[in-house]
Amino acid sequence: MYDLPPDLDRLRTLRTWYALWLGRIDQAIQAAEEKQRAEQLKAQRQVTATPDWVVELDRATGSPYADVHIGGCHMIGKRRQAITRDQAAQLISQGVTPCNHCRPDSELGLLE
């Protein structure tokens, strides 16, 4: 019968051993499912939380602002603040650098 030992004691030992392993596997599956759900929620929040306009904050130079970006730009640093379209136009007109990659000045119609 399936390469199992014939005596009751060893069969019960195997049953206990595999029951313990099944419990560990179930816990690992549950942890992986929770991690996957958390990653999906994080991705959903990032998609819905993308602002239309962003100003990158710069504490290194003493200037409050470094660059203005369009919200989905991949060049935005970690220190950022969501702004309105009017604020973006105002900051660029005041001399804050527009991003060279997403070109918010072009999108705002500020290029001459």
For the structure shown, list the relevant keywords.
single chain, 112 residues, alpha+beta, four-stranded mixed sheet
Distance from first to last alpha carbon: 86 Å
Strand percentage, roughly? 15-25%
Q: Note the total helix count.
A: 3
Query: Order of SSEs, N→C?
Result: HEEEHEH
- Whole-number tally of structural domains: 2
What structural category do the secondary elements indicate? alpha+beta
Largest sheet: 4 strands, mixed
Enumerate the strands of the largest sheet in spatial order, edge to edge or round the barrel.
3-1-2-4
Mean pLDDT: 88
* Unreliable stretches: none
Please provide the count of β strands. 4
3D structure, described in words:
The protein is α+β, with helices and mostly antiparallel strands. It folds into two domains: 1-49; 53-107, no CATH class. The protein is 48% helix and 15% strand. Strands 3-1-2-4 form a four-stranded mixed β-sheet. A hairpin with a 7-residue loop joins strand 1 and strand 2. The longest helix is centred in the first third of the chain and has 41 residues, at 8-48. The chain starts with 7 loop residues before the first helix and ends in a 5-residue tail after the last helix.
